Records
---
Amino acid sequence: MSTGVDEDSLIEAICVCDRERARLDAMTVDRVYALWCRQKQRFGDLFTVESVIEELRLARNVPRGWSIDTVETTIFLSEHMPGVLECMHAGQVDLFHASKIREVFESFPEELITTADTRITERLQDKGRPRDWVRYLRRLADRLDPAAKEVRIAAARAARYVSFQDDEDGTGTLFARLPSEDLAACETRIDAIARSLRHQGDPRTLDQLRADTITDLITGRNQHTGVRVVVNVQVPLGVALDMSEEYCRVTGYGEIPAHTARAMLTDPRNTVRKILTDPDTGVIRGLGRRRYRPSTRQRDYIRLRDHHCRVPGCCRPIQEIDHAQAWADNGHTNTADLQGLRKLDHKLKSAPGWHYRLDHHTSELEITTPTGRTYRSGTE
């Protein structure tokens, strides 16, 4: 189908739709809040929220979780964050992204919520929404109340769980919420076993092998012994010298308390690689060689530096190590020209009109799309 307009105009038209959707979300918030206020007069505080949630679920024919999120976000924005609500009316943030604000700040004291409302509003009006929205909100929350970070991480670690879901098609979903260090160890071991079996000629796909390996390990059908698992932990120098209690980071995952990192490093049952980082910049050092395939040390360095796919806004795990400047175009196999990508983004890099450039000084990735638009990673 031809629309008679160029690609950049199509992208802009889609963005206009997003802004209109945000304005419609703001209108929904206004009306849900009005409904809540009226029912509060009728029921008092006893049944108001539950009544509105159930009424909206029935009227809109949506899952109960959606209805809960809409009502809770509506009340929070309307009573605590007028600036963000104003941004919604201006089309700068939609209800989904506003709900993430509530999730991060709803437990904060009123004065800090007010400050957060001001900061977020200024950010949205000045630069627009950051690509990594939740990370931006977390960083803002940590700056406003550093003590809350400890409580947040401790609560998240305490809320670990496993759930099972029947997908009604002969399969089901196993979901586990685990501490970062355990999750990293699980992923590394499962991936190592799957790749080992693949190298031995197993005809199953890697995804099938990973799924079957989880079943083998949990049920005891096959323990897959003999596979070495290494978990990388980035440790600020002050923590390594017992001079500070800064948070450490499990490569590819999240932050962990200093005492947890120390316990991992001293436990003889663990195979943990300690990566010392600069206390001010967090920078690590690495080596490079001039050959096409990156060395094991270079691959490890890139995974430690990038944490996840470098494409702006993408938080998927790194699947492939790629030359930012293609080897055929005089690219170099050194850490300044290597980047971690997921498979889809690596393939897209070779598509006509897509151009990737890695800044050697800041390690930020700049992408220019076929429409001529440019996006950078690492910018908020």
---
Amino acid sequence: MLFAGLGLAAALGIALGLIMARFWVIDVALDTYITALYSIPSVALVPVLVLWFGIDISAKIAVVFLFTFFPIVINTQQSVKNVDGRLTEVGRAFRCSERQLWIHIVLPAAVPFIVTGLRLAIGRGLIGMVLAHLYTAITGIGYLISRYASTYRTDSMFVPIATLGLLGITLTSLLRFVEKRVAPWMHQPDQE
């Protein structure tokens, strides 16, 4: 459920962020809606999503998507918009086509900030997953926390909480490993 919601949010968020950064008309059309939806506390929308999607897995994926989509799309959009202008000028001076400019200059410069959006989304996705389980209250980590809390089993309650922490650390470390593979120039020591 976490991976499905996060994967869907990553695919749509990165694509939409790139499109919004590239086409100002789409940026102007969607920016207000994205800002408005991001400003609404996601917790307030969880009961609405549970009503719309029911208590099965689709509601949980929708909740995780809601929590993870906005950091990804906003970071992607801003990272592309804030690519150093000198880099794009050099590309244009060497007669790069628009496609070459994006592949060789814009996307490599934006990758670290896109990964930062993904790292933020992982933490928010874990929160969304627990909330989805709390609201559906049938299975999952959120259900275990709620069950142990209602029976005053504090010691048992910390097992799923610690599991969430370990999952967050593992996923973030995995993402850092991928970032080093995709953008190795960001992890080289400065040479003077």
---
Amino acid sequence: MLRRLPRRQMAGMGLLVLLVAVTFSSAPEPTLGLVERTVSDPAAFALALVGLYLIRPVLAIPTMAAAAVVGYGYGVAVGVPVALLGTTLSSIPPYLAGRYLRCTDGLLGRLCASGEAYFEVTGDVRGVLAARLAPTPSDPISYAAGLSRVRPQPFLVGTVLGELHWTVLAVVAGASVRDLSAGALPSVPMTVIVLTAVAALAVLAGPAYRSALDRRTDGVES
């Protein structure tokens, strides 16, 4: 398929990946113009998205920004599963990086201890789900899950469930705007942020209560 693409389209695809990575958050206008031109070629756009999601965790590109580009090119019906797949797969490198780090003394050791205590109380799936429901950056959660030795399957399940609503919001925003501009970039209403934060707390309420009850019981017995 690569050989069938004209050189001009290949160059446009590469520029799209580079410009999205560097300027999407701070100066989106030139990037979005290139996105629109690349969308007209389905093969080039698909390859550009692959490149975008490959470099997304390296350059800390927000998952919602990438999902908005997917929605712009594919619409909601196709864009949601594509963006959710891209978000999930691009969360694996930081997760693996966290798993291969050794928990030594100092700050890293404290982070490992805190993460392990958190997931011991919540469980792996519930812990990842609650963290991703909250309005927090995606990649630090992946690193923390890896540091805490969360198993791969629960990590992926929690990631899919926890990122679904953010992905839908971004894809819908991208699909509904044909002239993406700085003022039209996907923004998350404060109501959604509050509701997702409340949902995260609700997911953690049961484990937190049981943990507090266990500590109280241990204190009485001692």
---
Amino acid sequence: MKLISKLANGIVVAALFASCGTAAAQVTVGVVVSTTGPGAVLGIPYRNVFEILPKEIAGEPVQYIVLDDASDVTTGVRNAKKLIDENKVDVLVGSNSVPVTRAMMQAVAEAQLPLLALSPMQLDGAEHPWAFGIPQPMALMMGAVLEHMKQEDVRNVGYIGFADAWGEAVYKTLEQQDVVPGLRLTSNERYQRNDVSITTQALKIIAGKPDAIVVGGSGAPGALPHIALSERGYKGTVYNTHGSVSGDFIRIGGTHAEGAVAPTGPFLFAAQLPDDNPIKPVAAKYLAMYDDAYGVQARSPFAGHDGVLARRCRR
């Protein structure tokens, strides 16, 4: 809950800074997310939340400007600079993609403007003083995956992930883990987010005879390895990151993704939490707001990272 709350706190802080010396200064929040391209399954839920946020924070009028980075690094940086230079935003939010977010961090550092990252990133405050991560960090979420491997006595693990910063971050987390004694990585295959076939990579992974396989993907493209591995007869457990937990992943993966294991935050399953869990009331109010606007079928674990802001601002 503390991690999720950073977005609300960050924007409120920006509002306070923006209002210094003025009676009713408008706070302008720039948002860069992927509403088209491979990352849209993550970005659209974020956009949805910003469309229903209140137009006032801490007594100050607020404007949200949402731009689509098209799941592209160059577009994301261009949008960030536009929001900073032309729209004069007080704070930037985004992106849902690690590669785009990393590229945006340079722009906010030069402008000395807060960036609230919507992609899981473990950030060094001394190195990146203007960037703040909102979703659960990779080490926390993949730690749950490793604990599951330990319980299942998994020792040999195949890996396939995106050929970008996200795929590398997942691999490094596995490579540097200290949860499963003697864990051996049998492969390190990569694929592009817009690939339509990964037959060669799948065959190489299976040839290593792993006990289980980890897919370092996210969103809809995270289902592609499941399809390729299943079609070639792989029967072991296939693990995913928290970036793959979505309706589109299930729809595209279909029966090929049956039995997949992935970590996710607890808010999406608020009704299953015990009543004394501090996340339950926050999550329940957020889900009521989101369901009212978009329907239960549109629920997403990604939108919840900024959904808490709406609940707080309505107090």
